[in-house]
Amino acid sequence: MTPAPRVTIVVPTFGHPELTERCLRSIAAHGGNTSREILVVDDAFPSPLSENLSFRSRDMRILRNSENLGFLRSCNSAMAQSKGEFIYFLNNDTAVQAGAIDALVDCLDRNPDAGAAGSKLLFENGQLQEAGCIVWADGQAWNYGRGGDPARPEFNYVREVDYCSAASLMVRSNLLRQMGGFDEFFAPAYYEDTDLCFRVRERGKRVLYVPKSVVVHYEGGSHGTDPTTGGKAYQTANRQKFVQRWRLELKHHHFPQGANIVAARDKSLRRKMVLVLDADTPQPDRDGGSRSLVSVLHCLVDLGWKVKYWPNAPQRAPRHAEPLEALGIEVLDERGDRSLSQWLTQNASSLGMVLACRPDIASVNIDALIKSSVPILAYYGHDLHFARMRNYAELIHATWLYDQSVEMEAVERRLWRLVDLAMYPSQEEADLISQMAPKANVRAIQGFYAEIQAAREVPPAAKTLLFVGGFAHSPNQDAAQFLVREILPRLNSMVGSIQVILAGSNPTQEVVALASAAVHVTGQVSEQRLRELYRSCCCGVIPLRFGAGVKGKVVEALGHGLPFVTTTIGAQGIHGLQHIVPVFDDPDELARSLAKLFTDSPAWARQSARQIAFAEQRFSRAAMRASIADALSSVISPVRRHERTSLDPLAPQ
Known about the structure:
It is built from 23 helices and 24 strands. The longest helix is centred in the C-terminal third of the chain and has 22 residues, at 474-495.
């Protein structure tokens, strides 16, 4: 028995076989990997489509209506004969681009709370035709972004919209059937897609715009563009019907025409918007700080915030921006003469909060943020930078680095004084800041959530030891040298030859120099490859000798159930970790603890199980989300900006 296709593509037609053929050829060329059937509806055009269409494919059927039904009823008729899990309505005056259909399916798979998803529509000349649609309180509809540059950030993130045009709209077939398809109240055409998307929401599902799904729409190819003649004449009459039906919805949940376009395009009349600032687009496959920030962003989205992200780097990093955009986060950048201060001037009234990350980024922008009068000004420090620098200065006896730590302490103290809320990923650091700055509102949050894996009962056979770290970060370089020079020789003397894998981005010359027949320096590895390493290596080690804050690699190893040993610095900020994994600073003790894991399979299995249980209890996404919500709830009455500046001797006058 042939399995049902995932997608039924419905292409309604009335004449214009040359348009239909171009559309069908684009599906054949760019249809992607999703299984499909194509239902081409010939709406009783006098010259049958079957006699005028040279293109054929095995997944295509031509359905000829016995009488002219119009666009709406033709689509409903095709729906009744469809087999797909999703029904994809596609105008015949379109051409799908590479990946367009797969992107819609992937988005609906990732978002089970969404009932429909639509494409980015382009004109033939490459200009933007539609990036989702806005419906105003008077029922007028805008094709958002019309005539714009389709590469701009505001057109390139998944977002909830009022509706997407049925020129390229995918709907869950079970939901569509429950609603009876397009409502014949709007026959023969126009406003039926708008009404459909409103009814999708009425049933508790979202409608999403998917920018990775790109379709060229040769606008007016089927019905023309004159609203007073032909099929377009129904547009004005059906708008009046639509307003009559959805009067209360439009009154209470939509903006007046042209008002607050940023919130209107995001369907955010009653949603809070947060601007997040950091040095660069987070790169979670490169460093732990990025992993933490991505976790924070995920939780802000979970909590209902509409997130805008401003990386301080001038160039957009598409590979790392796209996962955020798929989550619904707009990744901004500087284009033309747009700067952060200009963006704030234009959008501050829509913001509920700004969250600045790391002291260097926050301190550079703090004065502009204060002037913007945003309701909540928050700061995420990642760790105590001055403490980490001072710790290293004492370890290597570097006076110059100690002096830099004093300067950094002054920067961090100023930030604590000026923001409404400072957040750190460890209670230990929050308590220290409260002692240093008693008036600061500082809260500890869970800085990471773990990717929990299934428990394992038997260790891998290979004697491999894994250390993960971004080596541009000096604590990781020092830890790699400590591992290879101090711990590994002792471990080899106890259990024989061990293979060490130093996995991570930006290995320095000093780290590369550690490579040998027994030590493998991988350079940057993909997320998939990293998961494979956690699964295939026997043990892990996190031998940090200086640093600050909770370490993402520790949380990661806990969730993967890879038994590991670490140091006091590695365990920093995670209360109770010493009862789950061995924690020592002496290389002899670290080597002995690793030797036990390599040689005692029951002990290995017990620690693996304890780590996973600990991660589930302490580092779940739900727990992190709750910790951030609790921290934000502490901002009862933000400090007034003039009070901040009057108390700040370093503020510009």
